[in-house]
Amino acid sequence: MKTVVGAILSLFFSLSQLYGQSATIEGVVRDKTDQAPLEFATVALHRTTDSTLANGAVTDAKGRFSFTKLNAGRYYLLVTFLGYQKQIVSDITLTTDGLINVGVISLPASPGLLQEIQVSGQKAAVYHQLDKQVYNVRQFQSAVGGTALDVLKNLPSVTVDGQDGIRVRGASGFLVLLNGKPVQGDATVLLSQLPANGIENIEILTTPSARYDADGRAGIINITTRTGLDEGVTLIVNAQGGLPSLNDFDNQERPQRYGSDATLNIKKRKWDISLGASYYQNDLAGRRVGDVNTTLGNRFTSFPSDGERSTQKQAYSGRATVSYNPTKRDALQLGLYHGARTDYRRADITYNNTTIDRTTGQLIGRTTYYNANLVKKQGTFSLGNLDYTHQFSDQSTISVSGLYEKDQLSGFTRNLNLRNSESNDTLQYTLNTNERPLTGYRLKADYARNLGKGKLEVGYQYRYFSDQGAFLYLQKDRPGQPLTSFPDFSGTVLVKNMIQSVYGQYAATVNPRLSYTAGLRYEYATRDLRIEGPTVSRFPLTLRNLFPSANLLYKFNTQWQLKAGYSRRVQRTTSLELNPLPEREHSETLEQGDPNLLPEFVSLAEAGVIYSGKKSSVFATLYYQGIQNVVNRVNSVYADTILNRIYTNAGNARRIGLEVGLDLKPVRWWKLYTGANLYDYRIEGSLFNNTVRVNNSSLVYSVNVNSSFQLAPSWTLQTTLNYLSLRATAQGEDSRFFSPNASVKKGFWGGRLSAILQWQNISMGWLASNEQRISTWGRDFYTTTNYIYEKDVIMLSLTYQLNQRGKKLKFAESEFGEKEF
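RESULT FIELD:
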C-alpha cells in the first residue's frame, strides 16, 4: 500500500513539472440567467484558417476550462450544452507562450426554455450531464418549507416509503454529497435536516466516476445550495407552522409542527463568510395494527395488536463557513458545524394473545396485556474542516483537505408490559440503554491537469472512524423487584474502520459530439470489531478492492443524446448492523446484528437516450444492478411471543429496470413533470446456516407526478402524487404506498416574500394514503403490520429573501455520526 501511495504522490509532483510555459486559452462557462457555473459543457477549439478541430475540453464543476501547449495562431471557440444555445468566441490570436483568458462565456437557455423562464421565472425541472441528472428544486413548490427529503419524493428514480426509507431505482443506501463534499450521513437523518428553501439543485449520480468515494449501493446524491450575490449580502429567512391535526388518532400527545431557518452570506473581495442556523419540531401522529403467529412444536400462538405509533422529532444546528482567496490561484476554506437532534418513537399497543394445541385444537391459554413502548435517540454532532486549493501556471490544480468530527450518541428503548392501559401492575419491564462516543477524520489530496484533449485527475484519501458503544440490558418481571442486568445481553462494542484509497481518472471530449470519462479506484480497508461482555471476542476484516467506472455521452444533434455508464460500488456495514448484543425493540421483537456481516458489492450499468425540444424534454434509461452479499433484516422465532430480528447476508440479488422522465409545458400556464421507474427484482440465497432458502421476486413500479398551474402572475397551484407499488423482500413483501399533495403559493414584493399553504398526505377521509403494510413469513412464523401515518396535514410557510443571486453556500455537515444515528 505504501508503494502505491508513494507512486501517486510522486505523480502529483512530476506531472506539475513535466511541461513548461506554452500558449494557453482559459475561461469559464455560466448560465446566462443566474450565472451558475455549467459543469460538463463542451468547449471545442477550432483553427480559424480551415475550421478544423484543434482541441476539445469539458468544463469542471466550477465551469472552468483551459487549453495548454497550443501553437501560435488564430482560433475560435464553440461552446455547447444541452438545453442551451451554442456560443462562439471568435478572433482569438495566440502568440508563442501567450496566455489568453476569454473570461465568462454566458450560455442563453434554448428558446423554449428561455420563454419559460421569462414567463414564469422557472427553469427546466431536469437537465442531463455526462455522469448525472440535475433537478432544479424551485420547481417543486410542495417541498417549500420542508426538507431535502420532501424534494426527493418528486424525482423519477427516487421513492420514499412510509418510514422515510429512501431508495434510488429501488435500492437503499447511497453516498450523500453537499456541494460535492462527502458527508456520509444516513440519508434519512441528513436529508431531513437540510431545509429545502436553501437548496438550488439535487444531482443524482447513478454511475459515479472513480474520483468519488465508492460508498453507496445506489450511487450518489449531491446537493448544491442556493446562490446569493457575487458581491454583497444575501439573506434568506424561512418560517413554517402546522395547523392543528385533523386526526391525531387519540394519541397521548398532540403533534407539534413548526420551525425556522436562516442563511446569511457576506462576500467582499477576497472574503466570503456564510452563516446558517435552523430549528424545527416535526411530530407525526399515527396508529399501528398488526398480527403475528408462531409455531413451536404443537403450540400455535397468535397475538394480534392495535395501538398508537407516533413520532416526535426536534433538531437544531449552527453552521459557519469562511472562505479566503489570498491570490487568484489560491483558495482557503474553513467550515464549522454543531448540531443536535432528539427523536422519540412511541408505540403503545394492546396485545391479545391466544395459544392452542395444534393436534387437538384445544385452548392452552389466553391473555390480554398493554405494552407501553418508548424509544429515544439523541445525538450531538461537532466538526470542523479545512480545505486548500492551488492552481499552477499551467492550469493544473492541487487540492488538500482535512476533516475532524466528534459526536455523542445515546438513547434508550423502554418496554413496559401492564395488564391494561390504566393499570400500574407490571407484568414485565425491559430497559435497554446505550452511550456511544464517535470519532472520525478524513485526509484527502487531489491533483488535476489538462492532458491531450481531456483532463487527468489523480488522488489519495485516508479515512478513520471509531465507535465505542456501551450497551446495557435491564429487566424485571414483577412489581417491587429491582431492574436486573442481563450480562449476556450487555457489554461494550468497539468498531474501528480504516480506509485508504487512490484513484486515477481521465475525462475527454473527442469531438463536439463525443465525450467520456474512464477511471479506476483502489481501496484498502480494515474493520476491527471487538465485543466485550462475559467474554471478549474480535472480528477483524481486511478488504482490497478495485472500483472501475466509465461514462459516455454522444450528441446526435442539438436535441438527441445517448448516455451510457458503469460503476462498481460498496455498501459498508454500520455499527448497528454488526452489534450482536440483543435489544428488546418491541414486546414482540428482539433485535440484533451480525458481527460477521460482509459489505455489499454492487455493479451498476445503464444506457439511455435524452430528447430536448422547445416545449418538452424526455429521457429513458435502461439499467442493471447486480448485488453481492445482500444485507437484509430477517426474522426467526425466539419464543412463542417473541421474534428474533437479525441483520444478515441473505444472498445475491439483481434489478433490471427502466426509468423515464417527461418535462412538458404545453401551454403558458401549465407545466407537467412526470417520472416513472419500473424494475424486476430477484433475490436468491439462504438464511440461518443454509437451513432456509431465499428465492423471491417481484415486478416493482413507482410514479411521481408534479403539475403546476400559473393561476395569475403571483399565484401558483401545484399538485403532486407519489406512488410506490408492492415490492418483494427476502422473507416477504412491503405493500404499496402513496401520498397525494397540493399547495398554493402567493408572491409579494416582487417575489422577495412568498407564502405557501400546503395540504400534505391528502386523504379526505376515504383515501388510504400515507399508510403501508409490511409482512414477513417463514416455516414457523407469520407477521404483518399496517403502519397508518397522519393524513391531511396542513402547513403554512413564509419565505423572505434579501437579494436573490450569487454564491453557493458550502457548509460542513456530519461526516460519521449522522450515519450511526
